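Support request, please re-run this one:
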Amino acid sequence: MTSRRYVCRFTKTKKKLNKRAFWLTAIAIVIVIFYVLAANTFSWWPFAAQKSHSSTVVNNEPHQEKSKSTNNTKVKSPSNQTPKQYDTPEDSNQSDSTLNGTINYSNVVDDTLSVRATINQKLSSGSCQLTLKNQTTGQTVVKSANIIANPSSSTCSGFDIPVSQVGSGNWSIVIDLTSSNESGQITGSVKI
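Re-run finished. Output below.
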């Protein structure tokens, strides 16, 4: 009789454990599904790393929204427009020289001023010379980089200057481009 009770108790306990395991597994699966959907929507891990590759350029200007004059609701710009960081900056003057381009990015990240520029022509070699000049003190910082060919354009390999070398203030940016017998200049500015 005791062995029968023991077997009966064991069977009931086993059924309870199986039922609990089933529900715990189902709840865990639902939580994982909701997290994956939320992570994709809000660019959380692991989707943040994937999306950051396509949007590593940070806009130097604060986010601005357009407002309608008829009612005071704010409407965001359409997503099919070229992102502002890829437009030619308003303060970027293109010279009449053979080579020209755009300063795509100029901002401080982790105590380093990063400047990135795209050259509108496809070049296989050449050099870029960055000249930063503080508009108040006149301090000048000069850096050089190689030109790198892209499929339909070129780029300077990039300039990363520690903020300790430049300091704060308004800085003018001049990038002199040289390749074979061609030259040109890209200009802009940055506030540190």
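The chain has three helices and ten strands. The helical segments are 2-42, 47-54, 163-166.
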